[in-house]
Amino acid sequence: MSEALAPACAAQRTVTILANEPVAKDTYKITLDDPMLASQITPGQFVMVRAGLGNDPLLGRPFALFDVVRDSTGTPVAVELVYLVLGRGTAELSRKRAGEPLPIWGPLGNGFSGPPVDGGDVGFVAGGIGFTPFLALGKWWRGTASYGAQGQHTGSLVSLARLYYGARSANLFAGLNDFAHAGLDVRTATDDGSLGHHGFVTDLLKADLQAGWRPSKLVGCGPAPMLKVLAGIAHQYQIPCDLSLENHMACGFGACFSCVTPIREPDGTTDLKRVCVEGPVFDSRCVVF
Ligand code: FES
Fold first, then answer.
1. Which atom of ligand 1 is nearest the CA belonging to 250?
2. DSSP symbol at 130
3. Does a structural domain hold residue 104?
4. Range(s) of the domain holding residue 23
5. Is 289 part of a structural domain of the chain?
6. Does residue 249 line the site of ligand 1, with CB under 6 A?
7. Are residues 15 and 144 in the same domain?
8. What is d(CA 272, CA 250) in angstroms, rounded to the nearest whole number?
9. CB of 6 closer than 6 A to ligand 1?
10. Ligand 1 touching residue 254 (CB < 6 A)
11. Are residues 59 and 16 in the same domain?
């Protein structure tokens, strides 16, 4: 696809790295100097980053917004992304330093819908690197920050925001202080028992629901098996639930079809949707696992 045919947000540009620091094992937070992106992006949207592997403009990695950096007047000036080092591209990215240029395109994707209209409790469920969207989403729904064209809110839009955060091991957790500072009630789980509940993060949600807690909305981001369990829980308790999918992406703007996933339509049929354009956030009732 030529740049002229691509949507404006898909136009690749080069920004300057302000910081690129480890925040957990194999996990880095990169800060990008991009006031335009910072003023437009909303929670749940993502940015494609090209770490320098060849010249193919379609070859990038999708990273969800972690948070927006604001100056002393409150004006958005930079964007924070958090990523896990998984292969050659992200390993190369982790070696980049402040002051270096970085090709990116975005904001991309649909982002999260608004908080529940009844202002009730919400439950966020994160697995692994799937924790990244929940700081900005938590700040938005708790009324402490606004993003993109959202108006400034006064007071929290939800009663309680609880984050269930699971990882393989304690040394993979990132942002726990950020989440606590943002007012989220954080519950942790690990596969090896090194922090919090020893077992699946969805076990914690199930226990709270069995004890009578009834959030007005659930939101999940993480590996597909975790999202499938969460969708089942949401169905069982009849709680609206949004899922942010982590499908592999190459272009991020609808051109390559590397990210398609089956989605159930209102008439019961199933269609293949591009996660980068029609998602990454879908109603859990529509996702076919
Ligand atoms: Fe290319 Fe979605 S990543 S169409």
1. 3
2. G
3. yes
4. 6-108
5. no
6. yes
7. no
8. 17
9. no
10. yes
11. yes
Q: Which of 9, 59, 248, 249 to mutate to test the pocket of ligand 1 (most atoms within 8 A of CB)?
A: 249
d(CA 250, ligand 1 centre) in Å: 6
pTM value > 0.70: yes
14-33 per-position pLDDT tens digit: 999 999 999 999 999 999 99
CATH number of the domain residue 202 falls in? 3.40.50.80
Q: Strand 122-127's sheet: what is its strand order? A: 197-198, 185-190, 161-167, 122-127, 217-221, 241-244, 281-283
How confident is the model over 45-104, as pLDDT tens digits? 999 998 765 665 457 899 999 999 999 999 999 999 999 998 888 999 999 999 999 999
Structure tokens at 132: 């990244």
108, 142, 164 — which closes off a domain?
A: 108
The percentage of residues in the chain with a pLDDT greater than 90, rounded to a whole number, is 86
Hey, what amino acid is at 124?
F
| Model confidence band, residue 150 (pLDDT cutoffs 50, 70, 90) | confident
Confirm whether 65 is domain-assigned.
yes
User: Torsion angle of alpha carbons 256, 259, 265, 270, nearest 10°?
Assistant: 90
Same domain, 87 and 211: no
